[in-house]
Specification:
The structure is a homotetramer. The first copy, chain A, is mostly helical. The first copy, chain A, has helices spanning 3-6, 13-27, 39-47, 50-63, 81-105, 113-127, 133-153, 157-168, 178-183, 187-206, 210-221, 223-232, 235-238; strands spanning 66-68, 74-76. Chain A has a two-stranded antiparallel sheet with strand order 1-2. Chain C binds chain D through residues 7-9, 11-12, 51, 54-55, 58-59, 62-64, 68, 70-73, 82-83, 86-87, 89-90, 93-94, 96-97, 101, 154-159, 161-162, 165, and chain D through 7-9, 11-12, 51, 54-55, 58-59, 62-64, 68, 70-73, 82-83, 86-87, 89-90, 93-94, 96-97, 101, 154-159, 161-162, 165.
Chain lengths: 251, 251, 251, 251
């Protein structure tokens, strides 16, 4: 579970429940852009009371999944491709700052042990031949762990929270594209490149090269733009991407 | 009024009222870190009902002014100097992206008219001799307008909202330091430098130099770190900075 | 033949002859660091008169292949690994500027035709399975053509000349490592990554993203550091690298 | 005397003599673009023999002050404003690398003593009121010392030599503009900004912020573009700039 959510204690568990359920309803397309979210229906469907539901609605609005309607209430947000590209760049910029901070702190070898282990696990995974659906299923959690460990190396809880928030935006994180990736013809190439960027960013951090570590993470984030572009050219692939219903497309 | 707030219509006006009032109470130090905010007391003091108050509490938590207490409820957030420096860098990184986007869109001369006018107004203001309190009182709104117009040049409403959000963090924006600035011995020098960065970033955007425009805005944001460092060395100056009570200081 | 040399006309053909011959003697290790180059022996061996030989010696000194000895005359330069890494970064920085200039000029689709053709030829080459010696023999001239075409897109003859000069430094350009590459276990992976960087830098230039194009070229140049590190761990591989005799190694 | 020249020993003193004299003749406009430099006349005028004169001609060609004529021989190089801007960016890029290397080496406080002393001397100089001709006469050597000390902090002799070479290009270094600066209406402002960049780059290096140190030095180099633009608008000012005769201007 993401850090921000896990810091909420039991008194907040109802808000967490509402948050996860609403998020799922938006990303799966059950709640469509422009359609007012009915508090009453949600209270019933999710099984929480009004107060935690409203907290969750406010939070999802600040994360960019919902928007406030002109006459009050919330609806799933309508996103343009340009908005999504901006969200990807923002995620990359903040992860880039985390990498810069890590490089400039001058950590010791022991600090790198956990993330180096994750890197090796990913190496083992993609060294096997032609990746299949199972490769990606294993890759996604390892990749998320790598990114979380990198954020921790920044030494700033504030930065970690901001990264988590930036990742909450639909499409901003790479993980949403898993089903698209599996079917992309150059799936293996992209995995090799992504992992090589992981390795290079660790090298840069170890060498105290903050500027290089930062630009590598920003370039790494841009892979998500590539996935999105490929998905946009293939309606069947796009249908598998969580949040696809939020995306306004020029038809 | 900031964009995000102004898009909330009347049905949200109570939330806006609660938001502004709570913000003021935190920044002025009436609500102290660690002390649970009493919903009942706030409802009475601010004059709004529970629902908008709670919306405001959630929103201020996502902005980093409040934190969730272990046993439920909210309190003003305790900030470290390192957190504040990270918040300043994040604000700079997102404003840097706005400048990059603006440069890469290739705007026409007419698009620059409004921001160029603001730049000239600031030029006129600081060309007069030794700045005084009144200079700064005039500078702050002009500076805010310049930054808003720059964000608009990005062409992305999403980026504008993220900048506004980043500025909501106490200390992240330069405007909080106005009273400190007025009394700083090198006040005029800093104003000249800040305005020169404004002029250079516009030149870079006009010339399509996205990378340069971005790094200039990031360096510009770092001026806030300089203000904070100076204020930290002078308790009397620090007492005038909104949010000072949130800052944990090594004593 | 490189641009700088080809602009020398026939009256300079003797200098070009001396330049190429001396370069070969240094890189092959016939002229060793610390050993004074005998003008007399060179005049005889290369078959040029003293004047063009001396011009060539001066030029190779400015390029970093020769150094002036304390008591006069020239010798092959002794290089540290750190010097070589610096030379690689300088090459990357200047190629990065070329990419930035190209992006900020806003070229038309026709301007990209020649370099896009080269990119596709490289794509075709490395799409075939496991690369062998022949793949690399074909890759090197295509890669050099790509880099020359990129330098031309900068629109600055001055930048092109400076890139050529930076490439003249032993090890700074990737082409010196061809024999090492062929035998590296991850040869194919590195080729895929290098070519992906080519494709991304063209995308960035087309989109007017100067900052991104620049950092991509700098990262691309860093591949040469990787080759060098791998070669340094394997004496047999190192013996095949032109200029290996110039490199001072901590033993 | 620059490092590269000072490493030439007495056996090379005639080449150094020829180099300095030829340089002066080109920058003062006695040797004009397109006019073939007569070896015979130079031998007589400078008082050196042919061999060192030819060495000097080759070296000045690699530095970009001379060019090879189609039918042999050398002439002062015709420069476009675009070439000069590129030369300024290259100088900034290499000085930027020096600052990056310095930041990533993690030096101790003692290493910064000499350059910090220079910084304070410049502070003292420009704290006095309105600068006059004497201020600039004192500023130029202090500024050159600051830049040399910064290059030394890189720890790479190779980088130092490349910076020196980049500075040899007419207009690339700030020092050529001293007479223009003295008469510029915003002379004091530019001095304040330049010195503030010096201070910030030292702060960034001390803090291990390589990326920031690098972009600051690049922005610092851009001040020379500003001087050139101002000089180009004022023929009388331009006549005082060394190398003005080399510059092709659209009339």
């Amino acid at each position: 579970m993401p850090k921000v959510l896990s810091t909420m204690d039991k008194s907040q568990s109802q808000t967490v429940k509402a948050l996860l359920a609403l998020r799922e309803l938006v990303l799966s397309g059950e709640l469509l852009p422009g359609e007012r979210v009915s508090e009453l229906a949600m209270v019933e469907r999710i099984g929480v009371s009004r107060t935690p539901l409203r907290s969750a609605l406010v939070r999802l609005e600040t994360e960019g999944l919902l928007e406030v309607l002109p006459n009050g209430g919330y609806a799933a947000r309508q996103l343009s491709v340009q908005d999504v590209f901006a969200a990807i760049e923002i995620r990359g910029a903040i992860e880039g700052l985390a990498a810069k901070f890590a490089a400039e702190r001058r950590l010791g070898a022991a600090d790198f042990q956990p993330i180096a282990d994750t890197q090796r696990e990913i190496d083992d995974l993609i060294d096997r031949n032609q990746p299949n659906g199972r490769t990606f299923s294993s890759y996604v959690p390892l990749n998320e762990r790598f990114h979380e460990q990198l954020a921790e190396l920044s030494g700033s809880l504030f930065i970690q929270q901001q990264i988590e928030r930036a990742n909450a935006h639909p499409f901003a994180s790479a993980s949403g594209f898993i089903d698209v990736q599996t079917q992309m013809p150059d799936a293996r190439k992209i995995l090799l490149i992504a992992q090589d960027q992981h390795i290079c960013v660790l090298d840069a951090i170890r060498a105290g090269e903050g500027g290089r570590a930062e630009t590598l993470m920003r370039e790494h984030a841009r892979l998500a733009q590539r996935y999105l572009r490929q998905a946009l050219e293939d309606q069947r692939a796009m249908d598998q991407v969580p949040g696809a219903s939020m995306l306004r497309r020029v038809s």
